């Protein structure tokens, strides 16, 4: 298989898998879940097979069709996209294992539709990762929104549907009202929307216009959840926990911060944006989002809502790192996408396992639960420490690089934001950990143990990945260093 063919196959595998899952679901749940596992393993094989080519400096690309002169559907595999695709495909397998335990343990309805829509969402995610230009990226960005709507609305009750409509409404209105005009503006001034090393806008826009176009992109990419375009994310917490894990760790939010980072690097260009004074607002917007979302998280009493606002803050770490416009920070942005994915998916898996085993959803109900669910809460502890940035977790590595980039740029706002938000992260996670391990459960608590084995297995795997990434992050750093080589 040629690399060009592999790109198309990677996008097509989840589509074929969705059909296989739908057909298998009519026969037996076991066959449906086998189809899910085979599809996810096949996707890993194809996507990860492209990695050696990227490490050797290759950039395979393929053009599918020309919609009109200058407007094509095309794909190119570059380091940022490779990282996103490898992360999404790898975590889909673990998420699928977890989903089987969760969906069966919780006796959820419409499980076949759930697994099929998951596959469709992964196809759109790979399309976003490998998009060769803004037009292709926009198409798959929208497909990702549409394919995840049934997952958010899975429960089907009135309250869930209302929240799912907020999810859909915010993401579609921002992308059509802001992201699309930004793309059209870019094509009109640059004559192309191709992702190009060094950017395509140098000499094409004046300083005030640069800041305005950047604003259209940042707030148009609502999936990045930069305030005030963030309300869809807490609303999406009505979804089953495996969907929350998909939204907050694998596909949707990562598609947002990946898109912003890719646009900064390949459309504006780091050097060009660094020289534009009108672009400096982005760092302040990201810093505001980090601190504000962390303060809101402090006030939450529901586990999933706390994790949702934590996600909003953590996403803007990536945006702020990209906005620092220094090589170390750009590498830190990419590393944080991985570290956050491992840590946050672990936290959501643990929250779902708690719900399946005990039906507990509130923080105050976790008192002493570490004795009943030691594996789950040990994994939760690792995920929480990674969000804070404590070694030996992956979150420490990414924060180190972002902080190093901030010092490289002598950016005191970024330095202060990282330190302050780390204190806030500790303020809302450490009391939970103390409650879980050192306080006693109230009398009359319902008898329960761990969640189903597959759910616990999955969350233990992601917790181990969170720890392993502290030591084995070299390939990610090497790959992403190609993006910023010679810049800054």
UniProtKB/TrEMBL annotation:
It is a multi-pass membrane protein. The chain crosses the membrane at residues 6-25, 37-55, 67-94, 114-132, 138-154, 166-190, 210-233, 245-269, 281-299, 306-325, 337-357, 378-402, 414-438, 450-472. InterPro entries: CPA3_Na-H_Antiporter_D (IPR050586), ND/Mrp_TM (IPR001750). Residues 131-423 form the NADH:quinone oxidoreductase/Mrp antiporter transmembrane domain. It is found in: Cell membrane; Membrane. Belongs to the CPA3 antiporters (TC 2.A.63) subunit D family. This is NADH dehydrogenase (Quinone). It comes from Paraglaciecola psychrophila 170.
């Amino acid at each position: 298989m040629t690399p060009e063919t592999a790109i198309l196959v990677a996008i097509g595998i989840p589509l074929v898998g969705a059909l296989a899952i739908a057909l298998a679901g009519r026969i037996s749940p076991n066959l449906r879940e086998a189809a899910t596992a085979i599809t996810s393993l096949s996707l890993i094989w194809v996507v990860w097979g492209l990695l050696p080519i990227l490490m050797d400096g290759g950039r395979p690309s393929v053009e599918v069709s020309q919609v009109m002169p200058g407007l094509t559907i095309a794909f190119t595999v570059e380091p940022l996209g490779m990282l996103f695709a490898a992360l999404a495909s790898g975590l889909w397998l673990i998420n699928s294992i977890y989903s089987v335990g969760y969906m069966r343990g919780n006796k959820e309805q419409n499980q076949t539709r759930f697994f099929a829509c998951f596959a469709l969402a992964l196809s759109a995610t790979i399309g976003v990762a490998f998009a060769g230009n803004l037009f292709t990226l926009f198409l798959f960005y929208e497909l990702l929104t549409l394919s995840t709507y049934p997952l958010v609305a899975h429960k089907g009750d009135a309250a869930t549907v209302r929240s799912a409509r907020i999810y859909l409404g915010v993401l579609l209105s921002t992308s059509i009202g802001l992201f699309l005009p930004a793309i059209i503006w870019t094509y009109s001034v640059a004559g192309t929307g191709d992702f190009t090393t060094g950017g395509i806008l140098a000499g094409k826009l004046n300083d005030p216009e640069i800041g305005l176009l950047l604003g259209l992109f940042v707030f148009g990419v609502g999936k990045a959840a930069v305030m005030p375009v963030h309300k869809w994310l807490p609303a999406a917490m009505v979804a089953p926990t495996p969907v929350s894990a998909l939204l907050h760790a694998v596909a949707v939010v990562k598609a947002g911060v990946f898109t912003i980072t890719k646009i900064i690097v390949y459309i504006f260009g780091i050097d060009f944006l660094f020289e534009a004074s009108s672009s400096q607002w982005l760092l302040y917007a990201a810093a505001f989002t980090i601190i504000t979302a962390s303060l809101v998280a402090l006030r939450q009493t529901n586990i999933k809502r706390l994790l949702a606002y934590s996600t909003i803050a953590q996403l803007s770490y990536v945006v702020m790192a990209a906005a620092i416009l220094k090589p170390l920070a750009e590498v830190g942005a990419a590393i944080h996408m991985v570290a956050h994915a491992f840590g946050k998916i672990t936290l959501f898996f643990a929250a779902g396992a708690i719900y399946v085993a005990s039906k507990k959803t509130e923080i105050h109900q976790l008192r002493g639960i570490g004795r009943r669910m030691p594996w789950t809460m040990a994994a939760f502890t690792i995920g929480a420490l990674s969000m804070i940035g404590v070694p030996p977790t992956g979150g420490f590595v990414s924060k180190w690089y972002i902080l190093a980039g901030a010092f490289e740029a002598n950016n005191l706002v970024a330095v202060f934001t990282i330190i302050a938000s780390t204190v806030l992260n500790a303020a809302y996670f450490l009391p939970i950990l103390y409650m879980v391990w050192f306080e006693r459960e109230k009398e009359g608590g319902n008898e329960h143990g761990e969640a189903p084995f597959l759910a616990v297995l999955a969350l233990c795997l992601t917790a181990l990945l969170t720890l392993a990434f502290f030591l084995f992050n070299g390939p990610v750093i090497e790959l992403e260093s190609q993006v910023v080589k010679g810049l800054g």
